Amino acid sequence: MRVLGFVLSATAVIAQEVDDTAYLLQTRTQQQKSGDEEDCYVTGGCSTTAATTTTTEAATTTTARPTRPATTTPRPTRPTTTTTEAPKPPPIGMVLQGVPEAPTTPSYDDFCTTGTVLSLTKPVINNLGGMGPGRGDNVIKYKHVTKVDGKDVNLVISTDDTYYQANIAKSAYGQTGKSFIGKYNGGGPRGRSDVMAIGSLATGDFTLSFDFTDDDGNAVVVPHLPMTFFDLDGSTRVGGKSYEEIETHDALAILTVEGTKVTHSCAGGICKSEGAKVEIDIPADFTHLTSTTKKAAITFFFESKSSFDITYTLNWEHRVFLFNGMCINKD
User: Fold this and answer.
1) Are 60 and 227 in contact (CB under 8 A)?
2) Overall domain count for the chain
3) Residue 84 pLDDT greater than 60, yes or no
4) Tens digit of pLDDT for each residue in 144-164?
5) Which of 12, 241, 264, 323 is least buried, going by the fewest C-beta atoms within 10 A?
6) Pair 143, 286: CB distance under 8 Å
7) Angle at CA 257, nearest 5°, toward 187 and 295?
8) How many CB atoms lie within 10 A of CB 145?
9) Which residues lie across from 226 on neighbouring strands?
10) What single-letter DSSP state applies at residue 103?
């Protein structure tokens, strides 16, 4: 009985120790899990699922989120673009043709709205090519035709010896070359201020040079100059060509009216025209052309020029070249 009692007592002790060990292990495990869960809340970096316990949930931390480090590199900006307004077309009833090789399209407003309009007085020298009717240098000179940057500008028209040689011995229609030129050039001995005029009794190609200078003779650049040529006409009733022709390498564009009878083109850096193949009346008022006289007129645009050349070709004798620094009127 004593032996049996001892065995039972030992068994009870062992069982108690096993229970105590299990309890300790369970307690430590719960403590470890609780500590791990607290670490997860603090660090924010755990993905374990917290065990269900009666432990009060930890308060939300007030630790601020880390911010991006400041950079000294500026944010790239969009490139600045310049908007260029497209040139406005000419008024209804007018046609503008530019030189295809030109870097920009000409603007009607630049030449005909805000451009230079030559204001003529009677020529102060009237002796183109030495043919009279006046004396002095072999030119036609108009004084103070406009202002550029507040400075008075003069216009001097000259030509080479071809003009003199063609007309000095010419006679037709009861006139000599010299008497015909004396009657018409610059408006004759009395002069005129509404239009510039150059006559030739002889046929041929005559190159006229236009130079803009100040009172000291220095070249002056005129930004936008329109030059209109009037009464370009002829006839097909006579043999061969009878009409007038104009050609220049210096113009930027030409302006005509719809229905014009003047043949024209701008290509290869050359603008040119051929007069109407019918006779059209000379304008009574060069600043206000009629619908008919507009059809025998053409305007050439010259941009940023202090000088330019025009070749005037006469296919028929006894003609007068009429022109002025203005646009064809739009009314």
Assistant:
1) no
2) 2
3) no
4) 999 999 999 999 999 999 999
5) 12
6) no
7) 50
8) 21
9) 301
10) S
- Residue 23 is part of which domain span? 1-38
Closest CA to 225 of 247, 204, 255: 255
The whole-model pTM stands at 0.74
The neighbour count for residue 28, using CB atoms within 10 Å, is 10
129: left (phi over 0), alpha (psi -120 to 50) or beta: left
**Is 50 exceeded by the pLDDT of residue 30?**
no
Q: How far apart are the first and last CA of the chain?
A: 147
CB atoms within 10 A of CB 183: 16
Range with the poorest average pLDDT among 81-85, 90-94, 121-125, 130-134: 81-85
How far is residue 68 from each of residues 43, 62, 65, 76, 325, measured CA to CA in Å?
19, 19, 10, 19, 69
CA distance 87 to 65: 58
Work out the burial of residue 101: count CB atoms within 10 Å of its CB; fewer than 13 is exposed, 13-18 middle, 19 or more buried: exposed
Burial tier of 95 (Cβ tally within 10 Å: 0-12, 13-18, 19+): middle
In a domain, 281, yes or no: yes
Residue 85 inside a domain? The answer is no
Please indicate, yes or no, whether residues 128 and 268 belong to a single structural domain of this protein: yes
- Domain co-membership, 216 together with 309: yes
| One domain for residues 115 and 262 | yes
The amino acid at residue 18 is V
